[in-house]
Amino acid sequence: MDKRDLGKTGERLSIVGFGGLVVRDETPESAANIVAKAIDRGLNYFDVAPTYGNAEERLGPALEPYRQDVFLACKTTMRDAQSAEKELHQSLEHMQTDHFDLYQ
Questions:
Q1: For 13-36, what is each residue's pLDDT tens digit?
Q2: What is the distance between the alpha carbons of residues 103 and 88, in angstroms, rounded to a whole number?
Q3: How does DSSP classify residue 91?
Q4: How do 71-74 and 45-48 pair as beta strands?
């Protein structure tokens, strides 16, 4: 999989990203298999949002073995700081991670 520099960050991201919506409503086992196949094919850019149904709950555990090696992005729909922060912490909990590499 080709990768490109993300500006001057030092990150090199796969030119194809994995949208968390792909694992929405999958079983945990199926989500883990889908993510493993994506990793095997060279994807390292993963994106999720709380608006993707249960995608955060499925993607987080599936990414756990690879978390150090992927770039994880998430979004908020909130437009005030307090609500966005609350949604951020909820997404971190659902994803079972301590950080996002990009939060929009």
A1: 999 999 999 999 999 999 999 999
A2: 8
A3: H
A4: parallel
